[in-house]
Specification:
The complex is a heterodimer of chains A (739) and B (164).
Chain A lengths: L3 E6 L2 E6 L4 H7 L23 E7 L18 E3 L4 E2 L9 E4 L3 H14 L17 H9 L18 E2 L4 E3 L9 H10 L5 E3 L6 E3 L12 H6 L5 E3 L12 E6 L8 E8 L6 E8 L12 H5 L14 E4 L2 E4 L2 H14 L3 E6 L4 H12 L4 E6 L7 H7 L15 E5 L3 H4 L1 H12 L4 E6 L11 E4 L5 H7 L4 H6 L3 E5 L6 H17 L9 E4 L6 H8 L7 E8 L9 E9 L4 H4 L3 E4 L8 E4 L4 E5 L12 H11 L9 H11 L8 H4 L29 E2 L3 H4 L48
Parallel strand pairs in A: 1-6, 17-18, 17-24, 19-20, 19-22, 20-21, 22-23, 24-25, 25-26
Antiparallel strand pairs in A: 1-2, 3-4, 3-5, 3-6, 7-8, 8-11, 9-10, 12-13, 13-14, 15-16, 15-26, 27-28, 28-29
Helix pairs in contact in A: 7-17, 8-15, 8-17, 8-18, 9-15
Chain B lengths: L4 H5 L1 H8 L11 H12 L4 H11 L3 H10 L11 E6 L2 H5 L2 H12 L12 E6 L11 E3 L2 E3 L4 H13 L3
Helix pairs in contact in B: 3-4, 4-5, 7-8
Classes of the chains: A alpha/beta (739), B alpha+beta (164).
């Protein structure tokens, strides 16, 4: 443990690590010093003056250099002549702090009075009203009455679009610069700054398009007033009307913890997601979300959300009952020689497990995964992925982060934030190998460039990294499958695993592979279904949650089970309406093998049912006897049958622990609008290399496979069946470009 | 599309400015380059600031922030010559207010406005650190002291003639 420093705050002694700020030390004691500009995730600046406290240090006799004591033997404290900001003052040995003196109280009142001189009194229509730090702190510390003339309030623009996702209300802004500092220090997109000075100071952007950042939504969370609001949520609901369900994002391998805020809508007569908010999990996303995770939720109540089974009759899809649909499927399955189940990698573990079980219980079924390429190397990630005890916060000086063939910001945005911090703030050595420039290149200590399709040259070259890797404390390898075909992607993963094994880092905490999988449950679907490569054709193809992907076997009869009416579904013989993740319970396994539970937020839309229920009913129609009552029961089967999952249980996944610093809404001082974690932090299952012996891989196929070149590079806002249904994202969607 | 007018028209000056700073500290050149933009376009235009950002390798938003912080970077269109007259208390005690009245009358505009021909902008400013020789004004980067109506007439005539 770091050196401890003893301080006394309002007479209470506490020992905190050296370098701790006065506000954080007080927080440890439950003494909340009010703050606006200070945010535990950002560097302190002392701009708002809300945290003024009285600070003193032991008096030292200049002649003897000895601490002066009074007659009673107590150390005499030399108080500073003026109040000082607690958020910029680190503690020192023997320091004394007073936070409840009349002087401090007056200072708080005065700062609030000034902040409110031009703050509009529009709390009743403000989106932040009800979850606003300025409201909270004014109530607790404000003067109650202002001496300023109401008529003298300065009026500024109230609806300034910074981009098409974020709006700025210049009257409400208190110039704390949290948004600017987030963009500078965390996201590294310098697209927000102050313009002008003094009374005219305002937030602005000159980026093109406006507020050009994948992380812009986070600024609305940390804004301590209602100055920054999202186009998606502004004027849509009041915070106290919202119900909150703990969920997990399934768009990328990070598995960010989210909260789905829902409300009953009289207009549509149903419950709707009003916004997606982060949920604090210091192990996964801290308190951040990317804009995709935040704004691509509208498909859960899209106009073409599937709510009724459909069967093709006379060339047209017509509505049917579940029983009719099951009947048609059972008939075709009985008649078919083979059944191919294709499982998309965004559905829950429980769904994938049940679908695979249903397909296999026909006795002529094969199970594959879509997109297929991840299945080519997911077993290697399971063996040599990051150690179970890995904590990205621990990665820093002495460690090496190797990024190979991956664009981390595009493919796993929150991992980008965390790996960037490890490199920039904590001094990990970053080595980036890629065929094009990515944002990660900015922080690289070493850049290894290769031609598109020429990754074999890098592989041959990579041996020279070995001394560095061997000397490193920890080695993290983030990699992707851009521009590779399946055999090549497997070879690359094998080669990278070998680098870990050769350098002595396989199966260690804070070391291992991080795969840039395409979706949120790629690893989980692979784990629980044990997929095989897709067959070329089958009598019946049953595609579950594959979206618009076209990598399906040739089928004489196509069953599509999905959430919305995809193009693929419109060509199907039978369409089965599946519940979206928001309509049911389940679990996902993130790209770093953390299994996390998500909970139901919405009632089922129409006849839509969870994928696992549909799978089980199809199986039962065909004579199977098994039956599950809920997702938890399926997970219990997963635990007994799937290697690696044996140590898990739904109870363990739901376990939480105190998150430090506390930034959930339950905390009125540091807390913003982020939610506390009540749904569990999840559990990372143990990598095979941690428990078994590790054997070097025989690298099979050549790595530079030209056959993969036509695969487009994967971008965050890539066009797809889900993002297309969030109109707020319309201008951001990128069509895949084939280089 | 980013225009590169500045680079084409003032390439020699840009090179000269950049040469003053180490190549990895190019961003330090942002302030002199902004003056170049102001000279070229009359004020700090968004496109001009984007160009500076590209030259310095920083984000356009950061450039605009610098221009916003300093009052001598103009954020709005102005005449080719900007006459800034100090109207702080010491200057007024020496007749600056009456001088401003005269200047407005002479130019036929109010303080803050620009003449029809787009040549001269008249503004009032706070403290140019020359109270002892007030009334005084600054024309672009040059000071003029102890102003009288006669001296101002001369100055305006000279400015109008300068480009002919």
């Amino acid at each position: 443990m770091a050196d401890l420093v003893n301080v006394t705050i309002d007479g209470v002694a506490v020992a905190v690590p050296k370098g701790t700020l006065v506000v954080d030390a007080a927080k440890k004691l439950g003494n909340d010093i009010p703050v606006f500009c200070y945010h535990p995730k950002l560097k302190p600046v002392g701009m708002c003056r809300m945290c003024l406290v009285d600070v003193g240090t032991p008096k030292v006799d200049p002649a003897t250099k000895q601490v002066v004591k009074d007659d009673a033997g107590n150390v005499v404290i030399a108080w500073m002549p003026k109040l000082t900001t607690g958020c910029t003052t680190p503690v020192s040995e023997g320091m004394a702090v007073r936070t409840a003196t009349q002087q401090v109280k007056d200072a708080r009142e005065d700062v609030l009075e000034f902040l409110l001189t031009s703050h509009p009194l529009d709390c009743p229509v403000c989106d932040k009203g009800g979850e606003c730090p300025l409201q909270n702190l004014t109530l607790a510390h404000g003067p109650g009455q202002s001496r300023f003339d109401y008529e003298a309030k300065q009026h500024n623009d109230k609806h300034v679009p910074l981009g098409d996702l974020i709006f700025l209300d210049r009257e409400r802004c208190i110039q704390c610069a949290r948004c600017i500092r987030f963009q500078d220090d965390i996201a590294d997109d310098h697209v927000l700054q102050f313009f002008e000075r003094g009374r005219h100071m305002e937030i602005m952007t000159l980026s093109e398009p406006g507020f050009d950042s994948y992380f812009s939504g986070n600024t609305t969370d940390i804004c301590p007033v209602g100055a920054l609001t999202s186009a998606d949520f502004r004027f849509k609901a009041r915070p106290w009307e919202l119900d909150a369900a703990q969920s997990v994002c399934n768009h990328c391998p990070v598995g960010c913890n989210t909260t789905l805020n829902t409300r009953l809508e009289t207009k549509t007569g149903g419950r709707e997601i009003k916004r997606v908010m982060p949920r604090q999990n210091e192990q996964v996303n801290e308190i951040w979300l990317c804009d995709k995770g935040r704004f691509v939720h509208h498909y859960t109540r899209a106009d073409d959300k599937l709510t009724q089974p459909m069967v093709r009759r006379d060339g047209k899809l017509v509505e049917a009952t579940w029983d009719q649909a099951f009947g048609v499927i059972a008939e075709r399955v009985r008649a078919a020689e083979s059944v191919a189940g294709v499982i998309g990698d965004r559905i829950a573990n429980e769904d994938a497990f049940a679908v695979a079980r249903a397909v296999r219980s026909t006795g002529k079924g094969s199970v594959s995964m879509s997109p297929a390429i991840s299945a080519a190397y997911a077993d290697i990630v399971r063996a040599c992925g990051v150690g179970a005890a890995t904590d990205l916060k621990q990665i820093g000086k002495g460690d090496v982060i190797l990024v190979v063939n991956a664009d981390v910001e595009e493919q796993a945005p929150v991992w980008f934030l965390r790996l960037r911090q490890a490199a920039v703030d904590r001094g990990a050595k970053l080595v980036v190998a890629h065929h094009r420039s990515t944002k990660m290149h900015r922080y690289a200590a070493q850049i290894m460039r290769y031609e598109i399709g020429g990754i074999d040259a890098w592989v041959a070259d990579s041996a020279k990294l070995l001394p560095d890797l061997t000397a490193a404390r920890n080695v993290l390898i983030a990699f992707g499958d851009e521009k590779l075909d399946a055999p090549a992607a497997r070879s690359l993963a094998q080669h990278l695993a070998n680098l870990l094994i050769d350098s002595g880092h396989a199966g260690k905490a804070n070391s291992g592979l991080l795969a840039m999988y395409p979706h949120g449950n790629t690893q989980g679907v692979f784990d629980v279904t044990a997929p095989m490569p897709a067959v070329a054709e089958a009598g019946v193809v049953w595609a579950v949650g594959v979206g618009d992907r076209a990598d399906l076997p040739q089928a004489s009869f196509l069953v599509v089970q999905d959430v919305v009416m995809t193009e693929l579904a419109s060509q199907a013989d039978v369409v089965l309406p599946a519940s979206s993740f928001a309509e049911r319970d389940g679990s996902y396994t993130s790209g770093d093998r953390r299994v996390q539970r998500f909970y139901r937020a919405l009632p089922a839309a129409g006849q839509a049912r969870p994928d696992w229920w549909i799978a089980q009913e199809v199986a039962r129609k065909l004579g199977a006897e098994w039956r599950y009552e809920g997702a938890g029961q399926i997970f219990a089967d997963i635990v007994t049958q799937i290697p690696g999952y044996a140590s898990l249980s739904y109870e363990a996944l739901a376990k939480g622990e105190e998150q430090w610093p506390p930034m959930g809404r339950g905390d009125l001082y540091y807390g913003g609008t982020v939610y506390d974690n009540e749904g569990g932090l999840g559990v990372r299952y143990v990598a095979e290399a941690e428990v078994g012996t590790v054997v070097r891989y025989e690298v099979g196929a050549p790595i530079a496979a030209l056959s993969g070149l036509e695969r487009p590079e994967r971008m965050l806002y890539q066009d797809g069946e889900l993002i297309r249904r969030s109109h707020v994202m319309a201008s951001h969607v990128v069509k895949p470009a084939v280089a | 599309m980013l225009n590169s007018m500045l680079k084409e028209k003032r390439s020699a000056e840009i090179e000269q400015i950049l040469a003053k700073y180490p190549p990895e500290r190019k961003r330090s050149a942002v302030m002199p380059l902004l003056y170049l933009v102001q000279e070229e376009y009359g004020y700090c235009t968004d496109d001009g600031m984007r160009e500076v950002a590209e030259i310095c390798g920083i984000d356009p938003t950061e450039v605009k922030s610098v221009a916003g912080f300093y009052s001598m970077y103009r954020k709005h269109a102005a005449g080719k010559y900007v006459i800034e007259v100090c109207d702080d208390l010491p200057c007024v005690l020496r007749g600056a207010d009456k001088f401003i009245d005269y200047a407005e009358q002479k130019l036929g505009i109010k303080a803050g406005e620009t003449t029809q021909d787009g040549k001269i902008t008249l503004t009032t400013v706070m403290c140019l650190a020359a109270c002892d020789r007030a009334p005084m004004c600054q024309v672009n980067l040059n000071y003029h002291y102890d102003l009288t109506p006669e001296k101002f007439d001369q100055l305006v005539d000279e400015l109008k003639k300068r480009d002919e």
